[in-house]
Structure formats: structure tokens, C-alpha cells
């Protein structure tokens, strides 16, 4: 089930507000209820990042989930959503990799990004809203956006955004049974096998200091494990690490 909004500030903000309203009234949305839009006036990425998209050219959608996951297992959702999105994009363009924690990269350029927000009560996830922006037919990006790309720029093909969105949602529905902590191991294996820059030395900014490090792993909580020049390994959370590309 999905709802089209011609324009909204943010699909995630819109869907989170609706889900909270339903929850306050003792109700809930159907699992995998999706809202999508032609244009976001205040599109958001992870943290304080914004998301640029020209009207009608790209996939801008947010999806509601009731996963049954414990709060401690919430990174299982991120593993599932990232691997499912990568699999979808790989149908259309080769060599798609996951840039930790939530971006999709092709040839060192950003093709898509997600924003996942959990509603937590005690030790359980009440619901999750996962938003995704996929650059589909975008040709020109504003200055200051680092290394963007789109399916059109990678393939030269013009896509029907509605058809592509339906294909994406159908794949998520097909893979929905894997969204369970019992599949965490295989999800993690898939994620790690397709992780951008894994096992290669590259420069990073760690709390503002430039280092050369090697991505070796992610821990149970989704923190990035970087190996430093001296062989020591350290775990870093989101916003503690900046990629230098």
C-alpha cells in the first residue's frame, strides 16, 4: 500500500508524524506502508545532511515497518535495508557498493542514501520509518554536493520513476522475511562482502584528524572498525569518521 504526495517537506517527517498520531490513538499503519513524492522542500539525509532532488526525476520514498526487533538489534534493520537496496540497484548498474553506514556508491560516486528512524519503547522497536533517495534521472547537481551520480549518468538510460519505485517496493516485500534477527549473520555477510573500501588503505578524518586507515569490520552496534597504521583497531560511530574521496 502506498500514498503519493505531490510535494512535501520530507517523506520521513510526514510518515513519522502519521505513525506517531496513529500510535497515540491506539492504532498503527500497515506494515510496509509507503509514502512517496515528486518533490521534497526540506529533504533530509543522515544527521544534519540535506538531500537534493529535482521535481519528478528521482525516487523519494519512506516506508513504515513493524519489525518485532529488540532495540538492541536495531542495526539488523540497517543491514537488511542496505543489502536490499544494493541488490535492487545492482539490477540496473554494476559494481554498486555500500558506503558505511547508509549510502550507495558506484565508481566512487553517491547514487543513493537512506535515513532510518526508529521509535523505541523500553527494549523494543515500536516501529521504524526508512526513507530512501535514489538519484534516477538527475543530470545536474548543485555545487557543493560531493561526488553525486544517478542511474541516468551511469547508464545513459531514461527511467520511468513510477515503474522503478514499484520494482523497488516489490523487492523489499519479497525480501521482507529476511528482516529478522535470526538472519543477522547472512545479512551481515552480504553487507560486508559489498562494503565500499573494505580491506584497502584510504585516508579518513577522525574527529578532524587525517589518518590512513583500513576498514576491517563493523561491530554489533554498527560502528565502523578501522585499522590504523600501527595495526591497532578502533570502533567509530557515525559522524566520528569522514571519508576523504
TL;DR of this structure?
The chain has two domains: 2-193, BirA Bifunctional Protein, domain 2, CATH 3.30.930; 201-243, SH3 type barrels. It is built from five helices and twelve strands. The chain has helices spanning 11-24, 74-90, 151-155, 161-175, 184-193, and strands at 2-8, 34-40, 59-65, 96-99, 103-106, 109-121, 124-134, 201-206, 209-218, 224-227, 233-236, 241-243.
Uncertain ranges:
none
Write down the CATH class of the largest domain: Alpha Beta
Number of domains: 2
Alpha-carbon distance between the two ends: 39 Å
Strand content: 25-35%
- What is the CATH architecture assignment of the largest domain? 2-Layer Sandwich
| SSE pattern | EHEEHEEEEHHHEEEEE
| Structural class based on helices, strands and sheet pairing | alpha+beta
Question: How much is the radius of gyration in Å?
Answer: 18 Å
Mean pLDDT score: 94
Output the CATH homologous superfamily of the largest domain.
Answer: Bira Bifunctional Protein, Domain 2
Described by its quaternary structure, the protein is single chain
| Strand order, sheet with most strands | 1-2-3-7-6-5-4
Number of strands: 12
Q: Would you tell me which CATH topology of the largest domain applies?
A: BirA Bifunctional Protein, domain 2
Output the number of helix runs: 5
Give the overall shape, derived from the CA principal axes. globular
Helix content: 10-25%
**Largest sheet: number of strands, sense, barrel closure:** 7 strands, mixed
Amino acid at each position: 500500500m502506498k500514498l503519493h504526495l505531490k510535494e512535501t517537506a520530507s517523506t520521513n517527517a510526514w510518515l513519522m508524524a502519521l505513525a506517531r498520531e496513529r500510535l497515540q490513538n491506539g492504532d498503527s499503519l500497515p506494515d510496509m506502508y509507503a509514502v512517496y513524492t515528486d518533490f521534497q522542500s526540506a529533504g533530509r539525509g543522515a544527521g544534519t545532511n540535506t538531500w537534493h532532488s529535482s521535481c519528478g526525476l528521482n525516487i523519494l520514498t519512506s516506508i513504515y515497518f513493524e519489525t518485532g526487533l529488540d532495540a538492541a538489534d536495531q542495526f539488523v534493520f540497517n543491514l537488511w535495508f542496505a543489502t536490499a537496496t544494493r541488490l535492487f540497484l545492482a539490477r540496473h548498474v554494476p559494481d554498486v557498493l555500500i558506503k558505511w553506514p547508509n549510502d550507495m556508491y558506484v565508481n566512487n560516486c553517491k547514487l543513493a542514501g537512506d535515513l532510518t528512524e526508529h521509535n523505541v519503547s523500553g527494549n523494543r522497536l515500536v516501529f521504524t520509518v526508512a526513507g530512501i533517495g535514489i538519484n534516477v534521472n538527475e543530470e545536474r547537481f548543485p555545487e557543493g554536493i560531493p561526488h553525486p551520480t544517478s542511474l541516468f549518468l551511469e547508464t545513459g538510460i531514461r527511467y520511468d520513476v513510477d515503474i522503478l519505485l514499484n520494482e523497488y517496493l516489490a523487492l523489499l516485500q519479497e525480501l521482507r522475511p529476511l528482516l529478522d534477527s535470526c538472519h543477522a549473520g547472512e545479512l551481515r555477510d552480504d553487507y560486508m562482502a559489498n562494503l565500499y573500501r573494505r580491506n584497502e588503505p584510504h585516508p579518513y578524518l577522525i574527529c578532524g584528524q587525517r589518518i590512513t586507515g583500513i576498514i576491517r569490520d563493523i561491530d554489533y552496534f554498527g560502528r565502523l572498525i578501522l585499522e590504523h597504521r600501527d595495526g591497532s583497531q578502533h570502533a567509530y560511530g557515525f559522524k566520528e569518521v569522514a571519508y576523504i574521496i
